Amino acid sequence: MEAHSNKARGIVVTMLWLVLAGIVLTLITISPANKKLSVFLIVASFSSLMFILLWFGNAVACDLMDRWIDWIKEPLKRLVVGILVMVAYTGLASYGLVLLYKTAFGLRVGDTTTFQYSTIVVTLIITMFMHGRSFLKSWKSAEIEAEKAKKESVRANYESFKNQVNPHFLFNSLNVLTDLVYEDQDKAAKFIKQLSEVYRHVLDSRNMEVATLEEELRYLNAYLFLQQIRFGDKLKIENELKPSRGNIPPLALQMLVENAIKHNVVSEEQPLVIRLYAENGNLVVANNLQKKVLPTDRPGGVGLENIKSRYRFLTDRPVSVESDNERFIVKLPILLEG
């Protein structure tokens, strides 16, 4: 309510200033022979209406063009189209107003050359002001969005780091390692090596915005080894990914695998099948859907939102999520190097 009140107040104040400008222009341009009160009032009202039409009409036109053509992405096109639209509008508005006053009062504004030139100058000033204001608004908005995206990315990276060093994963890994030490010492040694590889990558990537596919796949293989040792035949991994050129946000693939394990039943009767493959410039993580009920203190969807947030900062290509009664599929765009 207060915002609408302030906007209305701003419009009224602007109109008062425009009326004042019309009166001043009339005093400057009207010829001494025509300084009768009746003529003065007609010309002053004409000037004021002209200013109001030019100001608010050009403001509306400018706002509409801002929606269609982005100042930041297409500055030259926006400037040229803006000037053409404003010149066309100004010409039509001026002609219509002159015709109205000529019909109503017999006023011949065209006879006053000084007035014509003054109108042109005022039009140029209004046009430059509107374009300048529009550009500054767009630039400021883009700057705010960039800063917002940067903060969102920092928060997402921090959340990602917190998720990966959570005690649950370490606790489960140590439990598995305890059993392995007695059952298979060679496998236990490999388990320790892969566990250290996982945490090394987590620590190395905590300040990185993107990582190469080669690095991420090496880390992912270590993580998958740990999970398959933990779950055995309950978890089936079909990893078809090969090292290739490109980047992705660090830990993104691992988080999707972790999400699949977290949100689905993993048992001998209902083994979880996770398939990883590349398709049309995307890395795809798909799993059979067999949802389990999560405790209320472990809300779902955080990891996926984290990944989406980081992608919004890095690219216009969105993360795709597809789901039906049988499968859950997430597609991560591969980011081009450089």
Features:
alpha+beta; 2 domains; two-stranded antiparallel ribbon; Heat Shock Protein 90
Spatially, the strands of the biggest sheet line up as 2-4-5-7-6
CATH architecture identity of the largest domain: 2-Layer Sandwich
Share of helix, binned: 55-70%
For the record, the CATH class of the largest domain is Alpha Beta
Identify low-pLDDT runs. Answer: none
In N-to-C order, the SSE pattern is HHHHHHEHEEHEEHEE
Shape: rod-shaped
- Give the helix/strand class: alpha+beta
What profile does the largest beta sheet have?
5 strands, mixed
Radius of gyration computed on alpha carbons? 33 Å
CATH topology of the largest domain: Heat Shock Protein 90
Secondary structure: number of strands: 7
| Number of separate structural domains | 2
